[in-house]
Every structure is written in structure tokens, then in C-alpha cells.
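Hello support,

Our group uses your service weekly, and this is the first time we've seen a run hang past the timeout. The protein is Knr4/Smi1-like domain-containing protein. I'm not sure whether the cause is the sequence or the server load. Input pasted verbatim:
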Amino acid sequence: MSEAYSPIPELNLLKEFEDRIGPVYYSEGFELREYGADSGLHTWSEHPEFLSRFIPFAQANHSGSDYALWRCDDRTDLAALPVVLVGDEGHLYVIARDLRELFQLLAIDSEPVADFGFLAPEDVEEHSDGHHEFLTWLNENFGLEPPEDPHALWTGRKKTDDRFRAWASRFVELEDR
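Update from on-call engineer: The timeout came from a worker crash unrelated to the input. Re-ran successfully.
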């Protein structure tokens, strides 16, 4: 049996990085959790079709929000699935079109901001202890840096979020935006 954190190479690399730097944050509020563990989605709906379409994998903030991959289709590359924020304050939306885009957003070093995404890099006043190491890891493994314009990423994921909201509204009542 494999001892890998997950069946997703990108998440396994992140887990190795997280284990290597120890118990410090590298992006505000973010921390990998047990892959596939409960993230409170059952509080939204207990419908099996709803629950079976999510793969929780990380804590998104210090107050109880999580990240989960949304199985929007049957693609085999799980890293290419959209990432959903399962918010502790009633938010449920696509925050990134895939894992690499989430990693870029994590490079801002900000907790998700309700219905927006993340602060602009220039609005982050203080960085997490492991932030510099994360930026190095992100560039070395994926050739990525923090987004120059997080608003453009946020706008770019709107089509995916609209699709998600149409699907999820079959099972749960979502806030108007």
C-alpha cells in the first residue's frame, strides 16, 4: 500500500514541503488536512450525489473553512479539478479553477476573503513564517509566482463558479451574489 498523502502528485509535493518546513504557516490559515476527510459538507446536504462530488483536502482559514476539489466531471487528472471553498460562514463557491491556481493564490499569503477570493498582494501587511520558502517551492516545482493580478484570476474562475452554483443549487440553497 502506498504511503503517499493522496493520489495527486501536486498535493503530495505540497505535503512533502509542509512536512519539511515543520509546524509553521506558509500561507495564512492554510494547512493540509487528511485527504478526503470530513469538511462539514454534510451540513450543507446529505444527498449522496452532492457529497460524492467533493474531495476535501485542506483547511482554508483559522475559523473552520476548508478547501475541497469538486468532481465536476470524470477527468482522471484530479489536480485539474476546480477547488471549492467550503466556508464556515455559509459560503460555498469555486475559489480556483485547479490546484495550481490555488497554489498561486496561496502565494499571496492571505486567508480567503468572503465572496472575493484573496487580498491583493500589496494589501498583505505581514507574511507567514514559511512564506518565503513556499514561494521558492512554488517556483521550483511549478514555475509559478504570486499572481500579478489576483482580480484577473478571480474573474477568470467566474464561469466555473457559475457552473458550480447551477449544479450545487440542486442540493443546497446558495446565497445570492
